[in-house]
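Comment on this:
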Amino acid sequence: MANFTLSPAQLRQLDRQGFTRLPGAVPPELLDRLRDTADRLEARALDEHARACNSGTAAVFDAPGGPVVERVNRLLEWCPEEVIDLLSSPPMMAIAREICGADAVPVETDLLYKRPHPNGYVIWHQDARHAERCPYLNVGIYLDDAEIDDGCLRYVPGTHHELADICALAGEHGWDIPGAIDVPAQAGDILVQHVMVLHASRPKRRPNVRRTIYAGFRPAASISAAKAQSEAWIEARRRWMALITARADAADWPAAWRAALPEGGTVAQEVAAVAALQEPPQPAHHCHKPIDHPDYPVPADLRDGGRTAEM
């Protein structure tokens, strides 16, 4: 028996609304390790920024109080052991197994740091232009709480079947698109979403950082059918998946599925292979035009001298 499964209600919500939450899914020991890793990567990114030798995978911006790390991309290159341990954990194996199936592969893993700032919003968007019906997931692993009144994710349920007219919706409604709901999360929760569900997040206001790891899963056959990435890019991720399933508990990935994957090399070899094949992802969908709205994207009380917590 698998060590973790999604409930029928969670699978129905993902299918009907485009997202679902897995409360407390991350094992406590793994959560502590990931939080320590996030601290270590932040220090490394700041050190690289200070020495003007940014590797190109971290986004650091200069703020009045000093440089601030916004994100670390391509986590596999920064902390491969932690990434493989996370993706091979029972909840992540369940997500890949029960939603994407035997052909599931990881697409990418990134780490986002969200701090209080008027411009610390995420505008309404759909993660990737994806017309196919096969599952393409973006999975958020919460290292810190995302409270309902502090810039948590905001979804418009049921919008994962087609491209939304985001300019019209945001221009008329701002943050309050009809049907939109806030979805809070606690440290250790996992939020699973289809890449086409419309979502956003308001600025964070409270004086602490929120770290979230985002990991993508998708069936390899659907990547090949979309022709957005090369077969070599796909094969490198199939070998990455071989490393993941080899480390997973035997109960969490069917033996026949594991045997169908290519034989992977060492962690160092496969990380290098993935790093060497950087190809553009399928583009996100959002409004490219400035939106004139009194409360969007910067909320009205944070404009024109409005104050938020100091960074």
Observations:
- The CA atoms of residues 123 and 200 lie 5 Å apart.
- Residues 306-311 have pLDDT under 50 and may be disordered.
- The longest strand covers residues 104-114.
